[in-house]
Amino acid sequence: MDPRSTEAWALAEASRRLVLAARITDDNGEALRTALILNQRLWSIFQASLIDPSCELPKDIRDNVLALSILVDRHLMQRLGDLDGSKIQPILDINRSIAEGLSAQPERATDVGAAPAAPANPAPVTGKNAQPFMNLTA
Prior knowledge:
Keywords: Cell projection, Cilium, Flagellum. This is Flagellar biosynthesis regulator FlaF. This protein is mostly helical. It has one domain (about 5-105): Four Helix Bundle (Hemerythrin (Met), subunit A). The protein is about 60% helix and about 0% strand. The protein contains 4 helices and no strands. It is globular. The protein starts with a helix and ends in a 35-residue tail after the last helix.
């Protein structure tokens, strides 16, 4: 699995655990607390990777994801404070959006002989030449 796929999987798995934990009502919120802390740790790893001087992402992308991470932090802290599983949707939405972006495949040329046109917002590279969005494997 390439690094981008690993990062997308980690976000999807963290979201899956959050959804499942929010359904548990007979444990005083312990399952939800555990899932929220997992999400918090994952986003902390992303933040550390994004501020690392060796991060190869363009500055505007780093800045945008860091801004999202602050929003995620705020939601995570609020949910850790009240353990209200009915209010996790913003976290799930952001995780899903980032995971979908990481999982996006480049478009293929429809005509075998034609060179593909460069998209306005190129899709990420996948496979062995992929650059990690946030280096979870380091």
